[in-house]
């Protein structure tokens, strides 16, 4: 049966090569798409993880609280594995004054590692290197008409701290949104605590260098252990701390399957057309085989084998070419976008260089679609071939 199916494919080499080429192209593009898509998702979630840390400790019920005195807490000692890093962050609101101008701002007190993560957003100047220095959003600096080296006064009455502090602007930030840029003030954590809440933070960020991007099991275990010893505080994983973005992760497989399904449906239609034309051209041959004793099931099997051989060979070619390209992509590639798009991309903190990612699951999904298309496209022609009456088929004139 296999030899007969192979012989039938070779009888129309032009059609077989064209149809197989389409299938190979679809498989190749699927591998390319999955590699780039996986790399882009990794870059996005890695950025999210970098901003929040693997675990975040806050006051319990913080989403429903607004007062700083209820949101701020004295950072407790955490029982963490070796190599773990903890950073305190203090957030609040204040009025920024420069001469006769003033603007409300959201201020964030950071430690040195936190400032280093802002370096790619630095439009001018440098990062703070000591107390009394600050970074302003570029739009906020324009509104206040202050530049590098000039002084601003930050006024935040009603808190637990001094309520007022003078800061020197040493750097300007270029942020993705102008509205965010117009209210951003970053200052050293010690200055923020002196201004708002001495010795307190509004969150602790725990970073675990040994834990991978999607390794959630060790995070859940550490979260449960920490939560048991932190009454009044909540511990969240980086996904729980970003519920909107966390909803994207479960949709990854769905979106991936839908996109691939669209490509393979198009390939299936072309394959169906090729198999149907082959059936029409060989009606008399099928009738003769049935007259010689070939059963209806065997006729259907012959059509299915032809489809599987054609798609299988083409899929292996496309897969081989796709894997060769993936080996290049996983070493890093730049997005082929115009410069103005890349500038927007950089403003969101996303890297220009992505690294392709392709797992066994993605390869099996592609091959599974290939087999599904081969069987699905052959179903109708095989059913028609089975219903042919030998006598009528042998009288058929195309």
Automatic annotation (TrEMBL):
Coiled coil: none annotated. Keywords: Cell membrane, Lipoprotein, Membrane, Transmembrane, Transmembrane helix. It is a multi-pass membrane protein. GO terms for cellular component: plasma membrane. Residues 258-390 form the ABC3 transporter permease C-terminal domain. One of its GO terms (molecular function) is transmembrane transporter activity. It comes from the Bacteria. It is found in: Cell membrane. The chain crosses the membrane at residues 20-45, 257-279, 311-329, 363-383. It holds the Pfam family FtsX. Residues 23-209 form the MacB-like periplasmic core domain. PANTHER family: ABC TRANSPORTER PERMEASE YTRF, MEMBRANE COMPONENT OF TRANSPORTER-RELATED. Belongs to the ABC-4 integral membrane protein family. This is ABC-type transport system, involved in lipoprotein release, permease component. It comes from Thermus arciformis.
């Amino acid at each position: 049966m296999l030899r007969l199916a192979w012989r039938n494919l070779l009888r129309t080499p032009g059609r077989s090569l064209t149809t197989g080429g389409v299938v190979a192209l679809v498989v190749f593009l699927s591998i390319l798409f999955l590699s780039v898509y996986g790399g882009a998702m990794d870059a996005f979630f890695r950025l999210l993880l970098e901003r929040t840390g693997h675990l975040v400790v806050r006051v319990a019920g913080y989403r429903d609280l607004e007062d700083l005195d209820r949101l701020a807490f004295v950072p407790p000692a955490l029982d963490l594995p070796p190599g773990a890093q903890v950073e305190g962050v203090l957030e609040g609101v204040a009025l920024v004054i420069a001469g006769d101008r003033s603007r409300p701002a959201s201020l964030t007190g950071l430690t040195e590692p936190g400032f280093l993560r802002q370096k790619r957003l630095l439009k001018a100047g440098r990062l703070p290197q000591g107390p009394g220095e600050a970074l302003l959003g570029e739009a906020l600096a324009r509104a206040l008409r202050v530049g590098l080296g000039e002084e601003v006064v930050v006024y935040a009455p009603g808190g637990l701290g001094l309520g007022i502090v003078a800061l020197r602007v040493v750097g300007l930030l270029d942020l993705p949104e102008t509205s965010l840029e117009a209210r951003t003030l970053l200052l050293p954590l010690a200055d923020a605590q002196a201004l708002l809440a001495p010795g307190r933070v509004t969150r602790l960020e725990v970073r675990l260098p040994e834990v991978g991007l999607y390794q959630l099991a060790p995070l859940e275990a550490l979260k449960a252990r920490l939560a048991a010893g932190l009454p009044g505080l909540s511990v969240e994983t980086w996904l729980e701390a970003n519920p909107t973005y966390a909803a994207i992760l479960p949709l990854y497989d769905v979106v991936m399957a839908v996109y691939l399904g669209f490509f393979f449906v198009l390939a299936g239609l072309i394959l169906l057309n090729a198999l149907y034309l082959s059936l029409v051209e060989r009606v008399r041959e099928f009738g003769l085989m049935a007259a010689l004793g070939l059963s209806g099931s065997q006729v259907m099997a012959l059509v299915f084998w032809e489809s599987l051989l054609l798609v299988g060979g083409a899929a292996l070619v496309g897969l081989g070419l796709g894997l060769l390209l993936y080996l290049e992509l996983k070493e890093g590639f730049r997005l082929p976008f115009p410069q103005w798009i890349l500038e927007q991309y950089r403003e969101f903190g996303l890297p220009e260089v992505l690294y392709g990612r392709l797992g066994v699951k993605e390869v099996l999904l592609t091959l599974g679609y290939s087999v599904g298309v081969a069987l699905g496209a052959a179903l109708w022609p095989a059913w028609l071939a089975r219903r042919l009456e030998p006598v009528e088929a042998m009288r058929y004139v195309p």
